[in-house]
Design goal:
Layout: H1 2-17, H2 22-65, H3 70-88, H4 97-106, H5 121-136, H6 144-160, H7 171-187, H8 190-201, H9 210-228, H10 247-275, H11 281-301, H12 311-319, H13 329-341, H14 350-367, H15 372-391, H16 394-405, H17 411-428, H18 433-447
Helix pairs in contact: 2-5, 2-6, 2-7, 2-9, 3-5, 3-11, 4-7, 4-18, 5-6, 6-7, 7-8, 7-9, 8-9, 8-16, 10-13, 10-14, 10-15, 10-17, 11-13, 12-14, 13-14, 14-15, 15-16, 15-17, 16-17
């Protein structure tokens, strides 16, 4: 094995030495770390997605077998998920996107050593296990935010392993590119990854790292497709034969989703702030058990769709004849993520936000008796609007939903939904959930 490694290494070195153009050599050396990070990110994203889906399938199988088990499994899973993060990786809790945003801000000469709190191999390991345990216990969390923190950690480590003679690469650009590659691989949405890096993360002019960003997104996406197959996150919902009149329900659902999403963000921030007063492990465990039992009770006695990431809801309302949700489901799909996201375990809010928006669109479409195709349009715009209300990134939200459904004809409705939600959300609170959490993490880290 060692002989084979040395042979490959010497062959590559000889080929590289034969390149006469020094600028080409320099650019190649600059690009290689991004390519390596992108490939690893794509591979990790596929493995994590399959593990997370296995956990969610196990939870649904348990509910179909003996639903009462949720009263035992949920409290145990919530506590174990929280304990793993608290004990081994305190900054691995929650989504991961605010941590990446904080890491980008810390990527300066004075504070770059603190990035290891937010992005590391340890974060990758316990982020994965904590989120899978949480979703097995019915936690309403997703894997997309964690994938972004995992990708940021991968790119940071690749940068750290470079020898001293290697051309220096900006830590900030490396982390931002990793985050974009992570989102691209998680949703199979390359444009969404690029727009996310520009809209949510970047305070640097994109010209400084656009080539690295584009190639990283492409390589991560192609790697994910190679191992998982070419797929759309959701599929091809039918949206033909709609008239311009649909714009009025779109504006209505966008405004309502923007208000509810912003309120959900405020509630989660309030719970997080209140939880800081719980200084003992006992009080935290009591909170987790109560939260888990609330979710379990609603799932057992009323509707089990409060559990998990909510992808099943999106698929049902978009691709079956059963398009109308009960009036309380948007509230359930807000309560589940509120208690799960603030549990202290790992898990994202991207997919649950999309599910909440889908249920909101489904309920409103049912109230005004829209056709199935019109209902699909309102559901998709509700998804964009709710995600925008959480992230305050209307273009990212629009492009992600566009790419995961391949409904290019709806781009103007999706962008309208994002803009309406963004404007309405500003009336509720000025800053996004991610911005508030980022500042919270920065304050904690700078004190250490």
């Amino acid at each position: 094995m060692r002989k084979l490694f040395n042979f490959v290494r010497n062959s590559l070195k000889k080929s590289f030495d034969n390149i006469r153009n020094e600028k080409l050599k320099y650019n190649l050396l600059q690009a290689i770390p991004f390519w390596i990070g992108s490939f690893i990110t794509g591979l990790f994203a596929v493995i994590y997605a399959q593990m997370f889906q296995w956990g969610e399938n196990l939870m649904h199988a348990m509910m179909n077998w003996h639903a009462w088990l949720i009263f035992i499994v949920a409290p145990v899973a919530f506590v174990l998920s929280w304990w793993l993060v608290k004990r081994f990786a305190p900054y691995g809790k929650g989504s991961g996107i605010p941590q990446v945003m904080a890491a980008v801000e810390l990527a300066n000469p004075k504070e770059h050593s603190k990035i290891s709190y937010l992005l590391s191999i340890k974060i990758i390991i316990f982020k994965v296990f904590s989120s899978i345990i949480l979703v097995i216990g019915g936690g309403a969390v997703g894997r997309e935010g964690p994938t972004i923190q995992i990708a940021g950690s991968v790119f940071r480590k690749v940068n750290e392993f470079l020898p001293d003679w290697w051309p220096k690469i900006s830590k900030k650009n490396m982390i931002m590119t990793g985050a974009a590659a992570g989102l691209s691989a998680a949703f199979n949405t390359p444009l969404g990854g690029i727009v996310f890096a520009v809209e949510e993360l970047s305070k640097t002019h994109i010209n400084y790292f656009k080539t690295a960003l584009f190639t990283a997104v492409i390589i991560a996406g192609l790697t994910a497709q190679t191992f998982a197959g070419s797929y759309l996150y959701l599929g091809y919902p039918k949206t033909s034969d709609i008239s311009i009149i649909i714009i009025f329900p779109v504006i209505l659902v966008s405004a309502i989703s923007g208000v509810f999403a912003s309120q959900l963000s405020r509630i989660m921030l309030m719970i997080s702030a209140w939880k800081k007063r719980l200084t003992s492990d006992r009080s935290n465990i009591i909170f987790l058990i109560v939260s888990a039992l609330i979710i379990a009770t609603l799932a057992y006695f009323i509707n089990s769709e409060i559990l998990g990431s909510g992808k099943g809801i999106m698929q049902r309302v978009l691709f079956t004849e059963n398009k109308n949700e009960d009036w309380y489901m948007p509230l359930f799909r807000m309560l589940g993520p509120a208690l799960s996201f603030t549990s202290g375990g790992a898990g994202g809010i991207f997919a649950p936000a999309l599910a909440a928006g889908a249920s909101m669109g489904s309920v409103i479409a049912g109230w005004i008796n829209l056709t199935p195709h019109e209902t699909n349009v309102v559901i998709l715009t509700g998804m964009v609007a709710f995600l925008t209300g959480i992230t305050r990134a209307p273009f990212t939200s629009s492009i992600i939903v566009l790419e995961m459904t391949d409904r290019h004809s709806l781009i103007f409705y999706l962008m309208l939904a994002g803009m309406v939600s963004s404007l309405i959300s500003l009336l509720v609170s000025r800053h996004s959930l991610y911005d508030e959490l980022k500042e919270m993490y920065l304050e904690e880290i700078r004190k250490e």
